[in-house]
């Protein structure tokens, strides 16, 4: 019998021995104790193996799945599952299952005190039942009982997951048939629950540490980026200040901006035309034209606006718009880079405002000079050298032009446009509420026409002209004043005649020029209309001028003209054909006929 005990023979074999009953009972009790010890050793080994498996895991989901899988194997049950405590809702929710087939069961939530699991969570101690639905100790609810019934569970054992008084959740083992749970099984599940709770808390701590470390790393990167941004902003501030102090221009600013941010930079004026372009590969052609239109249309205020991969900002001094700044093809554009663009816009506004102020000061010099010249009492000893210092030589033949724009256009913008069209060798300024210009030219009509055509590309401007005048002429100051008056009258006459956007001198206006001109050139007027006929008559001894006069006096009737001239009507017809060839078609139109009749009358006046 002792040999059988030592060899671990089953209790049934010991019970069959024919020995002293008392000795046999002792042997069976000793064998049972050995069986219990072996089971505990196996369970302890399984727990140690489980601890080793869990220690090697760091993914919370994998850890929880391993816990329920081990619980099912150790307890030998149909199903094992685990619920976790939800601090926000104050209940527990299903987190991991092994052996479960019910979708309803896998998403069930258990309020504290509800069902077996809720009672375990509330009491923080294990509970078990061989038949859940028949056990009145538990507060049965429709949702919990429905989920348990859908899974088909009957016997359930639950034990809390607790670490240092911190409730983590509940670990369950259950069967689909009635079965009692021994105290050893409950203790085994409790040991596994303790191990599981520690592992869950440790994994959570590791996960939290990882999140904290990641957040710390991200914060460090943000600080580093912020510090780098501050360094870039400081470098930008120093560079922009250097440009301003050294008297740099907008090209220096756009170039510096590309050095600071990379990519390209484009400065547009207030109308959207490119003023300065810098960078390796800025847009050009149609792409540049389309970009300029988008920038003008969509840029708002003095803050950076993103247009796809382009960042833009408006440039202004108080409420006066000065232009736009666009930056593109940059790798990144963080807040510090946006501040750099905004700082560049402010500095650009200062530079543009300085340019405008200097240009307005220079323009004021020109305005004062031309106003003094046409005033009628100019001091040439002072104004002559002043004009030459501005690139204008009064000793050359010059014409006086007066430009009139349509309604709504400011004199300042018109002065800028006329200045741009005429270039630096002219004097342009505002005189008595209109724009006047002294230009080097001997032909006032051509000068006026040329200026009107140049300005017509962007606006309709009517230009009157007079001259030429020279400083060497006697009465130069008076001539300048008279030329200014004549040019102004000519511009007004063009407007009155409906010739908006044209340019002309008084001589180009025909008989109207005799009215607006300060010194009517009657002989020149007669020659401009009758010259070809007078030359023909003088060369051939004919009298085409007399025929033309008789024709008009006869009411434009060739037959009555023939009677006046005492010639045949066919002769008058032949002479009229000759007149047409000399003065051109259309001379009998009302306007041309009036000009010719006035020239005939003035010819007699000059002759007398």
TrEMBL record:
Concerning Gene3D superfamilies, the annotation shows: 3.30.450.40, PucR C-terminal helix-turn-helix domain
- Specify the superkingdom: Bacteria
Q: Which residues cross the membrane?
A: none
InterPro entries recorded for this chain?
CdaR-like_regulators, CdaR_GGDEF, GAF, GAF-like_dom_sf, PucR_C-HTH_dom, PucR_C-HTH_sf
Q: A Pfam family in this protein?
A: HTH_30
Coiled-coil stretches noted in the UniProt entry, renumbered to this chain: none
Q: Which PANTHER family match?
A: CARBOHYDRATE DIACID REGULATOR, DNA-BINDING TRANSCRIPTIONAL ACTIVATOR ADER
Q: In which family does this protein belong, per the annotation?
A: Belongs to the CdaR family.
The name on file for this protein is Cyclic diguanylate phosphodiesterase
């Amino acid at each position: 019998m002792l040999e059988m005990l030592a060899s671990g023979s089953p209790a049934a074999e010991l019970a069959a021995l024919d020995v002293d009953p008392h000795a046999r009972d002792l042997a069976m009790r000793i064998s049972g104790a050995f069986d219990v010890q072996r089971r505990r050793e196996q369970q302890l080994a399984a727990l140690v193996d489980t601890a080793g498996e869990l220690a090697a895991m760091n993914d919370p989901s994998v850890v929880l799945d391993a816990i329920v899988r081990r619980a099912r194997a150790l307890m030998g049950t149909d199903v094992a599952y685990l619920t976790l405590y939800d601090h926000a809702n104050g209940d527990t929710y299903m987190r991991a299952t092994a052996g479960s087939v019910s979708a309803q069961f896998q998403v069930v939530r258990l309020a504290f005190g509800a069902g077996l699991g809720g009672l375990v969570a509330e009491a923080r101690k294990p509970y078990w039942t061989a038949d859940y639905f028949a056990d009145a100790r538990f507060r049965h609810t429709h949702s919990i009982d429905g989920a348990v019934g859908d899974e088909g569970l009957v016997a359930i054992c639950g034990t809390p997951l607790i670490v240092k008084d911190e409730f983590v959740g509940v670990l369950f083992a259950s069967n689909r048939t009635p079965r009692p749970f021994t105290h050893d099984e409950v203790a085994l599940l409790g040991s596994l629950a303790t191990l599981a709770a520690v592992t869950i808390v440790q994994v959570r701590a590791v996960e939290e540490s990882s999140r904290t470390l990641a957040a710390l790393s991200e914060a460090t990167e943000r600080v580093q980026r912020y510090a780098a941004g501050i360094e870039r902003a400081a470098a930008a501030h120093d560079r922009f200040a250097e440009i301003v102090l050294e008297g740099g221009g907008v090209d220096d600013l756009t170039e510096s901006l590309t050095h600071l941010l990379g990519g390209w930079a484009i400065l547009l004026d207030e109308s959207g035309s490119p003023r300065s372009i810098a960078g390796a590969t800025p847009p050009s052609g149609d792409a540049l034209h389309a970009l300029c239109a988008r920038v003008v249309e969509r840029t708002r205020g003095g803050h950076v606006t993103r247009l796809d991969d382009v960042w833009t900002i408006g440039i202004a001094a108080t409420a006066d718009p000065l232009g736009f700044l666009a930056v593109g093809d940059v790798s990144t554009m963080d807040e510090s880079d946006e501040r750099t663009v905004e700082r560049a816009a402010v500095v650009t506004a200062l530079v543009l405002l300085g340019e405008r102020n200097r240009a307005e000061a220079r323009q004021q010099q020109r305005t004062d000079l031309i106003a003094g010249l046409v005033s009628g009492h100019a001091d040439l000893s002072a104004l002559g050298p002043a004009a030459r210092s501005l690139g204008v030589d009064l000793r050359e033949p010059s014409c006086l032009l007066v430009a009139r724009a349509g309604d709504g256009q400011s004199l300042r913008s018109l002065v800028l446009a006329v200045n741009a069209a005429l270039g630096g060798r002219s004097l342009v300024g505002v005189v008595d509420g209109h724009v006047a210009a002294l230009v080097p030219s001997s032909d006032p009509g051509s000068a006026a026409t040329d200026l009107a055509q140049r300005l017509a590309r962007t606006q309709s401007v009517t230009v009157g002209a007079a001259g030429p005048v020279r400083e060497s002429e006697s009465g130069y100051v008076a001539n300048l004043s008279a030329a200014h008056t004549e040019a102004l009258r000519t511009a007004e006459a063009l407007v009155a005649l409906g010739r908006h956007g044209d340019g002309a001198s008084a001589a180009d206006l025909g008989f109207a020029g005799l009215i607006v001109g300060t010194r009517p050139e009657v002989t020149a007027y007669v020659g401009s209309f009758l010259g070809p006929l007078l030359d023909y008559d003088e060369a051939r001894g004919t009298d085409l001028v007399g025929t033309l006069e008789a024709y008009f006096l006869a009411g434009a009737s060739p037959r009555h003209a023939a009677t006046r001239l005492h010639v045949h009507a066919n002769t008058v017809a032949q002479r009229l054909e000759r007149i047409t060839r000399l003065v051109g078609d259309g001379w009998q139109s009302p306007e041309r006929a009036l000009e010719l009749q006035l020239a005939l009358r003035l010819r007699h006046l000059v002759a007398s």
